[in-house]
Amino acid sequence: MNTLDPMVQAFILHFGEMGSRWGINRTVGQIYALLYVSEDPLNAEQISERLGLSRSNVSMSLKELQSWRLVQLQHLPGDRKDYFATPDDVLDIALTLLEERRKRELDPTLTLLRQSLLEEASTGEQKHAQKKLQEMCALMEQVSDWSDDLLKLSRSDLELLLRFGNKVPRLLEMKDKIAVLGKKKGN
Amino acid sequence: MNTLDPMVQAFILHFGEMGSRWGINRTVGQIYALLYVSEDPLNAEQISERLGLSRSNVSMSLKELQSWRLVQLQHLPGDRKDYFATPDDVLDIALTLLEERRKRELDPTLTLLRQSLLEEASTGEQKHAQKKLQEMCALMEQVSDWSDDLLKLSRSDLELLLRFGNKVPRLLEMKDKIAVLGKKKGN
DNA sequence: CAGTAATTTCAGTAATTACTGAAACTACAG
DNA sequence: CTGTAGTTTCAGTAATTACTGAAATTACTG
Questions:
Q1: Is A145 touching B (CB cutoff 8 A)?
Q2: Fold of domain B6-85
């Protein structure tokens, strides 16, 4: 891990440590951080040199990052190596993260819950359990729909929402007007 | 893991498996699932019997769940044992989860980023890196503020927001009116 | 098509994380 | 106090996950 600026160094190490909390491992976190702050795309060898990781580890980690759509593969003219970079708009990145996390952390459970709710409950204990699953399922569906719609918003609408987003409570002062909109989709 | 209803059984095992994706381990996930569907609070011994776990493992896992504020300790009259239950409102649970995850997954990084941004950048590469950190920091602050405000909402406002939440795009059709509100906090 | 640069796979190993049983602790009851 | 029911701690071990180097594969180049 040679000749990296101390600030960048600290950032990379931090991402490595946070990796486990974020459901990726240290290496994946470090590589992502390195690419994120790099001015230009890097190839696998450059990454393995700068972070002191084996070439094969870098290869596997880059695949993982690609499966999250958090890095993009690029080619430079006249160079056969694969180069990698992160998308440069942070908002893009955040949305990708939201989508992938929903896919991995919510969808499987939602599938299971829906299945369970198709079954007949006989005993009282079963009925109680099913009611609880039902509640969880309903909430998870709402959250899932919410994120779906968020992902469909135009960039400008999204920015608007985020910018005044911390004034959500004020927005709700308008709930009389808003309630009308809500009712159109009867729920 | 004796005499559990197959549906409940499947739910518990699923939570165990998802645990690692959610940043908790199998045991913690299973215990949470068991408590969530249980009609009455359970004590540590009941949990360890029903899930086939050692008593000590249950003790540690319950502490972990308490640190997430996902289970509550209770006492039954005339019984010295500690009993545990999950809060029964799923919305409560979701908000707790949001808050705890922000605390664990976002706050440490936000702290680091803010620190880094206090430093002087000299070289061009440093300046580029700092600009990227700056962008990430700004977005994370917005997300953090968003969730803060969400947590402050009254129960009824929250339900309203969630209920018509999947009509967010429509809400933004009203952005002319809303923009006025946004400007009051000039940003 | 032979040679080479680049990447991927994978079996073995290292590092980390989870779990257990035994011992220590806590708090109450007689 | 002493005994007992309940809980927690912790050192040792099991299980899982991460990482490596060597070999295999891919895809160009001359």
A1: yes
A2: Arc Repressor Mutant, subunit A (1.10.10)
